[in-house]
Amino acid sequence: MQAEKHLFATTPFLGPILRKRAVEHLFSSKSRDAALKLAGAVEDAHPEADAIFRRLLLLQHSSEPIMHTALWNYWKASRFEELLRRMHYCETLKPVLLQALVAMPENDWGNGMLFMLWSLVEGKDIAEMIEVSGRHAPALEMDALFGLAGGNPGRYLDLEDPDYSIFEKAWLAASGAQRQRISTTVLKSQDPRLVAAYDHAVKEGHDPQLVIEALKLCGDHDALLVRLHGLPFTSALEVIAFWEEGGGRPKTPSKKAVVDSAVALYRELAALLPESRSSAPPGTREIFSFWTERYRSYELLQQDLSSPDPFRRAGALFSAAQRGVVPRNRLQEISLNGTWPEKLAQHYLFTVPDASSREEHVCWLRPQENIVAAILSSRLPGSLEESSSLVGRVHAGAGAADESAELQHKLLQLLRLLQGYFLRGLITVDSNDDATEKNAVETEELTDVEW
Asked: pTM score, two decimals?
């Protein structure tokens, strides 16, 4: 104990000698308290902190199990803050750390240390060492996270996960960068089970367009039709165009019939569209096509939604709204208080409420086909009331000789076809008390709606 008191000795001439003896005494004791005192000395800027830290890293569990376990548990309790700080400022320590990790015991405790460090550091050397040594995390969600973020979906697909809870826990534990890599893994996997786990578990925390693209790649046309639920009608049109071009169809007869009808209507609709003509002068590009191409990256899209540049925000808003990832209350707030570039993106995509009461300084010229805009901005499946309202507007807004009337009717027909698929068997409850028996249920056919 006397030697330990001299751990921070500053006596002239004798100070270094006393400190060295104290350090050697602590290392030779191989006790838990000794490990904690040495680790604390490093954190308290001991004059020989670098040398002590290197020796601590080189402790072997096989020869000093008590000291080794206490040390790593101590570091783990602070999320390896001191360890990571020193690794950041001293490149020469990285091989020593890797050597220490290789020697980590192959049990749940040792593997848990390895995977926690990997999740914090995300070093390629640590990941390669884990792969080469065939290590697995004691927690299934961490093992799944390691595989999914590293482009090895087999680590997850080898697990039994019927309710996708393992995937969901892995996603919640992932950093932003890891989530981007998981999304890439899902997209490249072309595995229907992995796509289903991603879509089910991630919910609002992902880009719906990525799920659509992944389902296209893996050829799961049944799931692709089901996934249109909740998406804007414009996104559904893109999927129908994919079916029309590629010829793929769902296996389930009822789903196949819906897709066949949708493709037939889409072909009729395409014949009614006017030829697109670019009005952009030579050397320039139309802003909407530029935005569409720029924001293919979901990461860049999320970043620019909060950019201080209003044009970047507008471009990100344009692409995000098309994908259905902008909350409705956010769109409403922008329609009232957004900058004019953001409002431009909204007016192009949607029929935006009149905001003139807020001293609007821009006069927005609404196209004659605003009924078309209302149809395109619908979100599947919608409701019977919304569908009936659109029907009324189409009938009231275009006469038989109107050139846009047929286009409106075809768009509405296609929308209602998809609504019919999602809303069939819909049950509504009202306060009718005509029943004469307790717990009776009255049913009736909806005769004024045609799907």
From this structure: 0.60
